[in-house]
Design a protein that fits this description.
The protein is built from 12 helices and 9 strands. By secondary structure, the protein is an alpha/beta fold. α8 links the parallel β6 and β7. α8 crosses α10. The chain is globular. The structure holds alpha-D-glucopyranuronic acid. The site of alpha-D-glucopyranuronic acid (GCU) has 8 residues, from α9.
Length: about 425
């Protein structure tokens, strides 16, 4: 019954607002009364596979590098006594001896009882940019030149230490009882079109294992894979509660975060900050960044099959509300910004609303409505959260405030 009402609502919204695309793919083809068993056994696996084959690409099935962890540095009472800082090197190594190192920076609250819930997110320039802490290592990988960060030779530099603190309120997160952990996303896969030679892709292929461009992982899927490897480490760390990890990400890293949350069900909460096209926004709305535009500007992000939908979104077999549905019944939070038209805030909200169909199947409460969300009025109750705040494409204190409140409902005992 609920499902019928939801469909009437969707049809109504097409005619009344013209905002939900007409031919949006349905979670359940030809089934009028689905249940959770059907979802878990038939439809969820199919939709997951379709996202792998048509959007993000697959990690080759035989790819199974040895993963090892090395605590390179640890200090108690760091950050004026409030943090236990750890820097861990995660090494991936193939049988033929190719390897990749990811530098994981972790701050845990110094005072705590038992295992600690953690926020995990990739950063855009380097671990050393998230906090002025002089002990944070600089990475040795490629990074984009940016004058504002003093980066001119595609290398991490001391000048950018602490430059993105506004996105990483470390002490505040610790004071709320969470740890915070991050990896530079370029440690996993450098963010340029390198013909899939470097980073994680460099480990996947050799003369025998050739990349299938149509269906093999692009960079977004590689970043998501890296997030899962961090979770593997958390399972080994006696201070971290790997069952209480909130994975979050801004923008392109928000896309990777959603794919990580959808494809790895160990993540307890998934948070997308301004992820837009290829993230939370509905592609079929063709509002803001389109599939063609993203595939043209960033040809290495998705698998080549996704390019079939350039100027052809209506033929997509899945849309991004289904990605959010794959995260159900675990909590998911999506955030938009008013001046971030490129990411289609309205398309992000509708996506959240439509994903509620799967939470409904589980009889779980969701509160995000179809009607246009009110600016700066977060919906934090229920399993799916959403807000649109004033301001531009960014990750801000306001966003963190909501994420922490949302996480408290599920991760604080
Ligand atoms: C570009 C890109 C977006 C992406 C953003 C970012 O604007 O078009 O898809 O989200 O970069 O990562 O900041």
């Amino acid at each position: 019954m609920k499902r019928i009402i939801l469909h009437i609502l969707i049809i109504f919204s097409v005619s009344a607002y013209g905002q939900i695309p007409n031919n949006l793919p349905d979670f359940f083809k030809d089934v009028s009364d689905p249940d959770t068993q059907m979802w878990e056994e038939i439809y969820r696996p199919q939709i997951l596979k379709t996202f792998s084959n048509e959007v993000y690409g697959n990690i080759p099935s035989g790819f199974d590098p040895k993963v090892s962890f090395r605590v390179e540095e640890e200090e108690h009472n760091a950050l004026n006594g409030v943090a236990n800082r750890k820097q861990v090197i995660i090494t991936l190594e193939t049988e033929e001896g190719k390897s990749l190192e990811m530098g994981l920076l972790i701050y845990l609250p110094e005072k705590h009882e038992g295992k600690i819930p953690v926020f995990l997110g990739l950063n855009s320039i380097g671990n050393h940019t998230i906090h002025p802490d002089p002990a944070i290592f600089l990475h040795k990988n490629w990074c984009r030149n940016r004058e504002s960060m003093g980066i001119t030779e595609n290398k991490a530099v001391e000048i950018s230490r602490g430059k993105v603190v506004s996105r990483w309120p470390v002490e505040y997160i610790l004071s709320r009882g969470y740890g915070i952990a991050t990896v530079y996303y370029g440690d996993i896969d450098p963010d340029f079109d390198d013909g899939y030679k470097n980073g994680l892709h460099g480990l996947m292929y050799n003369d025998e294992n050739i990349r299938n461009p149509l269906t093999d992982a692009g960079s977004v899927a590689a970043w998501a894979y890296g997030l899962s490897k961090v979770l593997d480490y958390f399972e080994e760390d006696e201070n971290i509660d790997s069952d209480r990890v909130a994975v979050f990400g801004h923008s392109r890293r928000g896309k990777a975060t959603l794919w990580a949350g959808a494809s790895d069900q160990r993540f307890a909460i998934t948070i997308s900050n301004n992820s837009g096209c290829g993230g939370a926004a509905l592609s079929m709305r063709k509002h803001g960044e389109t599939v063609k535009r993203i595939n043209t500007s960033f040809p290495h992000w998705f698998c080549d099959n996704f390019k079939k939908y350039n100027d052809n979104e209506e033929n997509l077999p899945v849309d991004q509300h289904m990605l959010l549905g794959l995260i159900a019944p675990r909590p998911v939070y999506v955030a938009s910004a008013e001046d971030d038209d490129l990411a289609d805030p309205r398309g992000e909200q509708l996506s959240v609303f439509l994903a509620s169909e799967i939470y409904d199947l589980y009889n779980l409460k969701t509160c995000v409505k179809k009607t246009k969300a009110v600016i700066n009025s977060p919906v934090k109750k229920g399993l799916v959260g959403y807000h649109i705040r004033t301001g531009k494409h960014d990750l801000m204190a306001y966003d963190w405030e909501q994420y922490l409140d949302f996480a408290d409902r599920y991760l604080q005992k």
